[in-house]
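Example for tutorial group B:
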């Protein structure tokens, strides 16, 4: 699903008005009416209210006036509170305020704290947040801050108009304070602030409504950012042909593990098998090969010379022989950060002619020498968590988390890789600057080994011939969706990586069923 920035949405509105000739007052009417219709369906049990519409001075308030008028038309009890002096509303919003007044709507104006306190003294069943829209760029202050605090303290269902007031539509940041909505109705398209945290946590359930902007015009605007939900992910999967065999679905080489970390190699390998790789071979230190052979019934293992329990330079010739005939490599889980291992990893990354996914210690090995990535001739996917990303980018975790999209995009563009910045609402950035925000996953995934599984998932998709961009974005979605399927059964604590492994085939089947109309 497409995600727009605030500026892209403004440009789209402007083009609809100036190029197509649709008056802004008509777009506002369409937006408010569509939001009112959703409210009437979603909160039917609360009919006939009363409803309090809290409206600001701008166009978001104008949408609120339309909602109030249509709710009155449907027989609901509605009060509208305008955080401004009477006579200060202008433009399209003024036209709809006048229409609400002429229809007999009950309207209060509050331009100071005393008036606001008095207006907020009613007994309401439902609140509509039409205070601040997608144009907000600075911290909320004054009456608006007071109104937002009151909304959140009221503990009533809230419908937010376009975006919860106080959320930056482009970054998802909370600008001082923000409304916590149960339902947000967005116009024409979702905004980035709906999809990334913390904004996503404030938006509640999301609905997108058509406000009359021509489809062709909308399609031309804002394809740089997309939310990967089930509808997006199912485009990338299809049933296997009846003539398929293991050789047709790729051979994945996993290079992983060290003494004490055989589990990382095993989980990456099984992640590849559970995501459909026809064959998986694990190249590992000879000292843990026997353990891995016991852990992995279906995968093959290849023991390589080790130094103090980890792979070193002596393993490189055998690895070159091993990658012959493979379709993709997954490198890094549990390998360690010893000097010889780091040197080996850098050579592997530079020389390997196949698509690779790099995780954990393979990512760490690139700290300070990421330019190695520019020497590669085949597609590359990196899957750092924020700490690893900080080492790659020479930045603090706080800086990384403050600009996840920008950080991922800059690295992907600079080094011509697909960058998967893990975490809640994982960000996947492509070399051409496009970004995907993952819509699956839950806090139950905060458990050791989850990243190793993801490495195997993405490696398997690469081995099956998926382009690196698709393998990364789909792999991240499947990873999170498997965990979401487990959440009702296991809850948000105690879920472990091997639980998720067993759910991966069902997560993929779910997408196949959706695509074929069976679910």
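The residue assignment follows.
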């Amino acid at each position: 699903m497409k995600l727009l920035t605030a500026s892209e949405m403004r440009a789209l509105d402007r083009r609809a008005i100036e190029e197509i000739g649709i008056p802004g007052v008509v777009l506002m009417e369409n937006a408010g009416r569509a939001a009112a219709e959703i409210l009437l369906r979603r909160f039917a049990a609360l009919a006939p209210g009363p409803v309090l519409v809290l409206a600001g001075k701008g166009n978001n308030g104008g949408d609120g006036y339309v909602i109030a008028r249509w709710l009155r038309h449907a027989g609901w009890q509605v009060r509208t509170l305008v955080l401004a002096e009477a006579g200060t509303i202008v433009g399209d919003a003024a036209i709809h305020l006048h229409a609400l007044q002429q229809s007999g709507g009950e309207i209060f104006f509050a331009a100071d704290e005393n008036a606001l306190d008095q207006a907020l003294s009613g007994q309401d069943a439902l609140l509509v947040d039409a205070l601040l829209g997608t144009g907000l760029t600075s911290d909320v202050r004054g009456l608006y801050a007071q109104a937002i605090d009151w909304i959140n303290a009221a503990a009533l269902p809230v419908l937010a108009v376009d975006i919860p007031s106080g959320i930056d539509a482009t970054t998802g940041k909370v600008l001082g304070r923000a409304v916590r909505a149960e339902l947000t109705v967005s116009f024409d398209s979702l905004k980035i602030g709906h999809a990334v945290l913390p904004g996503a946590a404030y938006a509640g359930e999301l609905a997108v409504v058509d406000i009359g902007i021509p489809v062709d015009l909308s399609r031309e605007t804002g394809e740089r950012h997309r939310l990967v939900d089930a509808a997006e992910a199912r485009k990338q999967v299809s049933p296997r042909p009846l003539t398929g065999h293991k050789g047709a679905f790729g051979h994945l080489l996993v290079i992983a593990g060290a003494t004490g970390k055989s589990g990382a190699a095993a989980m990456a390998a099984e992640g590849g098998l559970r995501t459909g790789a026809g064959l998986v071979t694990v190249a590992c230190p000879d000292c843990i090969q026997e353990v891995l052979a016991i852990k992995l019934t279906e995968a093959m293992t290849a023991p390589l010379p080790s130094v103090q329990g980890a792979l070193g330079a002596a393993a490189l010739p055998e690895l070159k022989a091993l990658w012959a005939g493979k379709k993709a490599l997954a490198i890094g889980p549990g390998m360690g950060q010893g000097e010889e291992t780091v040197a080996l990893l850098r050579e592997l990354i530079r020389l390997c002619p196949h698509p690779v996914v790099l995780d954990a210690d393979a990512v760490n090995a690139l700290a300070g020498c990421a330019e190695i990535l520019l020497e590669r001739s085949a597609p590359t996917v990196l899957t750092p968590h924020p700490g690893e990303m900080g080492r790659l980018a020479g930045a603090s975790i706080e800086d990384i988390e403050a600009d996840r999209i920008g950080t991922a995009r800059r690295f992907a563009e600079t080094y011509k890789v697909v960058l998967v910045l893990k975490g809640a609402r994982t960000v996947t950035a492509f070399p051409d600057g496009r970004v995907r925000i993952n819509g699956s996953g839950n806090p139950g995934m905060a458990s050791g080994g989850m990243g190793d599984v993801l490495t195997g998932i993405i490696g398997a998709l690469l081995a099956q011939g998926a382009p690196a961009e698709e393998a990364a974005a789909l792999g991240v979605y499947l990873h999170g969706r498997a965990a979401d399927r487990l959440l009702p059964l296991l809850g948000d604590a105690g879920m472990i990586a091997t639980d998720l492994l067993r759910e991966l085939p069902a997560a993929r089947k779910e997408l196949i069923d959706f695509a074929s109309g069976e679910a």
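The longest helix spans residues 468-490. Compare this with the pattern of hydrophobic and polar residues in the output above.
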